[in-house]
Amino acid sequence: MKYHVPVLLNESVEGLNIHPKGIYVDATFGGGGHSAAILSKLNGGHLFSFDQDSDAKQNALESEWFTFVHHNFAYVKNFMQYFEVEAVDGILADLGVSSHHFDDAQRGFSFRFNAPLDMRMDRSVKKSAADVVNEYDEQNLTRVFKTYGEIANARRLAQEIVARRSESPILTTDDLKRIGQRFCNPQTESKYLSQIFQALRIEVNNEMQALKDFLVGGLQILKPGGRFVVITYHSLEDRLVKNFFKTGNVEGELSQDFYGNVQTPFVAISKKVIVPSDEEIKENNRARSAKLRIVEKHG
Length: 299
Hints:
DNA polymerase, domain 1; two-stranded antiparallel ribbon; Rossmann fold; 299 residues
C-alpha cells in the first residue's frame, strides 16, 4: 500500500514554475510524492522537505539536492535561517492528513478502526485526543467542536462527553464513536463523525496556529517572483489560505493605498481555485475535497 497518493500532483508542481537551480520547500513531505516530482526538475538546486511525523523519515529521498527536516512547518523561516538560506524560489504545502495516518489504525485518526484515541502527528507531543476528551471542561470542548468541526450541536455533544467520562474514561475511537452516533441520524453519520474527529485532530496538533505561522514565515522567506502553492481540504484551512493570499496577513484585513488600490504582496496565478478532475477523484477518493491555490510574490 502506498504511504500517500499525492493530490493534484502535476498542477501543484507546475504551479511552482521550477527553475533547475532554484531552492524550494515542500512543507508537507509525507510519502514524498510531491518532493520527488520537484526534485526531478532540479539540476544544481535544492529542496528542503518538512514533516513532523517520524514515520515520514523512512521515505526520505537520496539526493545531494535534498534535505529532510523532521519538524513542524510552522518553523520554516527558522530552519531556513539555520541552513543559511536567505530566500527560496517556491513553497508547496499539501495540508491535511495523509492516507498513511488514516490507514494506520493505531494512530487513532480514523473512526473506521477501534484504536487508542491518539491523533498526534508528532508523537513526541504529550497531549493526545484522549487527553482533550477526558480533561477539557464543557466550555472548551464546545469551543473545539464548534470552531474546528463546525458542529451545530457542539454544546450537547460536549455535555454528553463530560457525563460519560464521569462514569468511565473515553480512551478509544470506538468509545468516542458511540457517543457521536447518539447525536446524528444514520444518513449523515459518517460526515458527523468526521467533523468530530477533525475537530479533535486540529486541536491536538494545533493545526490552525501552525498554518498561520507557516504562511507568515513562508511569505518572509519567499523571493520576489517566487511561487506559493497550497492545497487545502476543509473550509477552515481554505478560508485562511484564501484570505492570506488576498491580503498578506492571517487576519485577512485588506489595506489600501491613497487611491484605494488594494495592497497585497501577492498576485494570483490561478484566478479560480483549482480542483481535482473527476478522473483523479475516481482514482483517489481522498482528493474529492482538495482545493489548490497558487500565488506569486510581487517583484
